[in-house]
Task: structure prediction
Amino acid sequence: MSMEPDRELERDPYLAACLRAAEGEIPVDEVDWNALRASVVERAELPLRRLRKRSRPRRWAGPVVSLAAAAGIAAVALLGGLDRKPAAAPTDATSVAIEEVMRSDLTDQEFGIVASGRENTVALLQIAANTD
Amino acid sequence: MGALAQDIEAPSVTEVDGRPQPNGVDAVDDEVLFERVRAGDTAAFDTIVSHHMRRAFSVAYRLLGQREDAEDLVQDAFMVALEKIDTFQSGRKFAPWFYRILVNRGLNSRKSRSLRRTDEIPDALASSTVSPLRAAEQTELRERLKDVLAELPPRQRAVVEFFELEGFTSTEIASILELSDGTVRWHLHQARHALRTALAPFARRAE
Result:
């Protein structure tokens, strides 16, 4: 049995005619082709809609990602800028006050009130009255 | 061969370069169209359906033997193609991939329903001019061929029908049935041998 794989096989018209006679003709005239096509396309509408939905985000995902990235960079720059603001340089008055506090004999509690910088007028006046 | 052959109608398929081209399917654009279908393009899908509907029906009918079953199979095959659209690799041919789906489902369907070609064969061959003896011989020949076809393994029968009647090449059949080209040729050889053996007594009688 030689198969000769490199050569395209020839068809046998007699055999084909006999097969066609045995099996009958394909009833192509009985098929409503427009109805069949419409039915296929109608059934396909839902899966096609899913495919459209699936492919839609891809169209606007690029710009949205770009915008989000830009917004993120801007936020980081803004917040980072605030954090990096240099501390105010001490004035002469502040320096004198610090020296006096260091020289005075304050209790730990009094020192804490002064050093915290919190506005506790009464406590500060009492400390001032006790010094000197 | 014998005189009986002259009584049998000529093939109805269109022949191009001596090879049957049943529907003039334009395979060039299918891949482009199917890429558009991936994005949900209804018009592209509609065009693909139009391209392949007739040939798909013909193949389905060969497998199932009933018009309604063949129509259902065609519809199912297109739906499954949509479901499996992600498995279709770009750059490959659409037709073998699609017909593989159709044929596999058709073979499974035939197997599960134990379908047999028991439907009436249209008596198109018997004309009023044919003698009763000749008409009886033709009926006998058809019945004999039907029996031989029914005895063939399903894939072997598909190979001979797709090749002789549907105009597929052996390479296309190999792709559709997921067989090697050599196996397809072997199946074709076996099926032809069985059919020719069945036809031989009729050819001798006609001589």
